[in-house]
Each structure stands twice: as C-alpha cells, then as structure tokens.
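Q: What would this chain look like folded?
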Amino acid sequence: MNRSPDGFYPAEEEASSLSGVSWGAIFAGAAAAAALSLILVLLGVGLGFSAVSPWAHEGVSAKGLGISTIIWLAVTQILASGLGGYIAGRLRVKWANMHGDEVYFRDTAHGFLAWCVATLVTATLVLGSVSGVVSSGVQAGASVAGGAASVATQAAGTAAANSDGDQYGYFVDSLFRDDRPVAVSDDAARGTVTRIFVRSLSNDGQLSAEDRTYLAQLVAQRTNLTQADAERRVDEVYARTQKAVADAKLAAQQAADTAAKVAAWTSLWMFIALLIGAFFASLAATFGGRRRDAVVYLETDTYVTTAPVR
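A: My prediction, written as structure tokens:
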C-alpha cells in the first residue's frame, strides 16, 4: 500500500485528523429527546390533575398517584431518551476502516452524550416550572399544617395584640388585678383570658395558681358558679386547650415526616428513572448507528464528481 509523504497510510492519516464525536448528531438527538420529554411531562401533569379530586374518597388515592407518577416518569425517560439516542446514532458520520468494537463504543458514547444534553435542557426548562408548581403546593400544605399547630397560640396572640396593640398585655393586665370580683365587660374578659392562655401555652404549658384563681373569678361572675366550680371549669377547659394544641402539633409533625419520606422516595425513583433513560439512550444509539452503517447508496448515471458521504 502506498504511503503518504509523511509516512502514514491515507486512511490512517484521515482517521487521525477526524474527531470521534459528531456534535451535530448529538445536539439533534438531545433536542428531540428534550422536546418529547416536554410533551410527555405536560401530558402526565394534565392526566394527574384530571385524576385528582378535591373531595374526600373521590379520585385516585395518594398512593395510586405516586405509583402512576413513577411509572409515567420511567416511560417518559425510556421513550424520550430512546428517541434521542437513536437519532444521535443514525445521524452521526460513518466511521470507515474502524474496528467494530470502537464503533460500538462511539455509538454508546453518542447516545449517552445526547441523553446528558437533553437531561440538562429538560431540567432547566421543564422541571424548573414543574418544581415551582409542586413547591408552591408543598408550601401551602406546610402553611396549613403549621397554622393548625399554632392556631391556639399565634391566632389568639394576634387577636390580643390587635385589640391592645401591646405584646406585653399579659403583664399590663396583672397590674390591675384585684382580689375583689370586679365586674368587667365581656370583650375585656375575653381578651384577658386569651392573653393568659397564650402566655401559659407558649411557656411551660402550666397554668399558674394566680392565673387560675383570677380566671375562676371571671368565670364565676358570668356563670353564677361558685369559686370552686369555676376553678374546676377552668381546669377542664384549659386541659382541652392543651390537648388540642398537642394534637395539632403531632399532626404537623406527622405531616412533616410524611413529606420528608415522600421527598426521599421521589428523589430515589427519579435517580432510577434517569439511569434507565441513560441506558436506553445508549442502547438506541447503537441500534441507530448500525442502521446508519447499513445504508446503501444508489449509483446514478451522472458525470458530476461528488464528495464521498461520511
């Protein structure tokens, strides 16, 4: 075989000057994969919203929705990544005079690179919007749970602060307390009771003896109960208030634990789905590359000399 002036065979010289990466094919496959991912994700979001009902015991359950979301995410990765990998392999240049193992490796790499580019584009354009919607829903749910936990303290404290305009109203009330059963208006009595409850619940949760006696006086004035019966009623009502606050806090903690578990499982299954997408993109690229190499060019009766198609 004739050598070129620099000592290389013509095929070897040509191969050494060409890149092993067909970026045009990679970006084409990535664009197709990203577009199909967008379509499938929007379709999945639409189907998910149509299956969810705001009414209890209607529509798909939370467990069913989670399982269907995982399956749809895997299907999206398989279809979109497979399409992108196949296009990247089918549109690449033809590597002549090259061992089959090297061709197989390059096709696999082209499919993987197309998947990488498509994943980055999809994460930037698609998942950003979807995560914004999901995070808004999570924040709304957390606000509801947090509001339920503090409804007996923060709401009452806000009402007391709005009525008096002073966050130290509890201490101001203690200045004007009298052992004598002085009659006060209903609004003033409710404000005083609210501030005492908020103060006790926000500290150690125990109602002091002075506060208990004073509340019993206010109750006795309005219910014609004796001081002892009024004190028992104060104890019962305060115990129910403590239980309501404790139940709300427990519900909020359980909701937070559930949200953390859902986030962990969602991340895990997204990781698995992305791995599946990378595998199918690489596999489809090898199939598309083989179809590319099997292309047979037709001869035409022309006198025009054309450059060889690569």
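Residues 45 and 130 are 9 Å apart (CA to CA).
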